[in-house]
């Protein structure tokens, strides 16, 4: 009688079950969340400037007393739309207008739109004047914050953290893929043992 038969052991060892590693939970970086929220606020403010300038242009053309003011407002609408689209950081925009890739350039464009919205021409309606002031001062503030942050190299910090977040997300995806593959191989191994 062999020692395996004495102890009741079979010729094949039982499969070893390795506990699965804990899933990596990706936490968003609070700094990047603040940057995204600020970008959203800036885009909404630029769209508010678009609305104000459209209303002002319509009033200028409707009364036909200030054609040049209406044309000025049309340019302000186009540039404000461009500011809102630039906040999406769409690669098509930054590819052709490299200055908008940098926060200082983006801030200067926002200040320009704020001044265009506020400065010329004045309309008689008080509600529109109030809306002009609110939108222009908000966009002016956003532009100043962009310029200050650009000068202080906060943009470099943001880009570094974005790269780290992308690499962390990729590592988590790779880990999940490896775990899924391991489970498939374990299932295959159990089928062969049966």
Describe what this molecule looks like in 3D.
This protein has two domains: 29-152; 156-194. With 194 residues, the chain is mainly α. The chain is elongated and about 90 Å long. The chain has seven helices and no strands. The longest helix has 40 residues, at 154-193. The two termini are 26 Å apart.
SSE map:
Elements: H1 3-6, H2 30-63, H3 67-86, H4 91-96, H5 103-119, H6 126-151, H7 154-193
Task: State the gist of this model.
Helix content is 76%, strand content 0%.
Q: Structural class, from secondary structure content?
A: mainly alpha
For the terminal residues, how far apart are their CA atoms? Answer: 26 Å
- Tally the beta strands: 0
State the domain count: 2
Order of helices and strands: HHHHHHH
Model regions low in confidence, pLDDT < 50 over at least 5 residues: none
Mean residue pLDDT? 82
Q: Give a short account of the largest sheet.
A: none
Total number of helices: 7
Shape: elongated
Which value, in Å, is the CA radius of gyration? Answer: 30 Å
Beta-strand content bin = under 5%
Feature tags:
194 residues, mainly alpha, 2 domains, elongated
């Amino acid at each position: 009688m062999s020692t395996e038969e004495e102890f009741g052991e079979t010729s094949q060892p039982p499969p070893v079950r390795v506990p699965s590693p804990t899933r990596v939970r990706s936490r968003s970086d609070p700094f990047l969340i603040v940057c995204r929220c600020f970008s959203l606020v800036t885009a909404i403010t630029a769209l508010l400037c678009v609305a104000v300038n459209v209303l002002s242009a319509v009033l200028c053309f409707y009364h036909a007393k200030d054609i040049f003011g209406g044309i000025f407002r049309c340019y302000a609408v186009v540039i404000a739309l461009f500011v809102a689209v630039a906040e999406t950081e769409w690669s098509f925009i930054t590819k052709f207008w490299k200055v908008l890739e940098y926060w200082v350039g983006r801030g200067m464009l926002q200040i320009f739109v704020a001044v265009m919205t506020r400065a010329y021409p004045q309309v008689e309606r008080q509600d529109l004047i109030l809306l002009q002031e609110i939108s222009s001062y908000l966009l002016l503030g956003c532009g100043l914050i962009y310029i200050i942050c650009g000068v202080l190299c906060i943009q470099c910090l943001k880009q570094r953290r974005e790269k780290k977040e992308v690499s962390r997300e990729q590592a988590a995806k790779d880990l999940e893929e490896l775990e899924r593959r391991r489970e498939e191989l374990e299932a295959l191994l159990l089928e062969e043992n049966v």
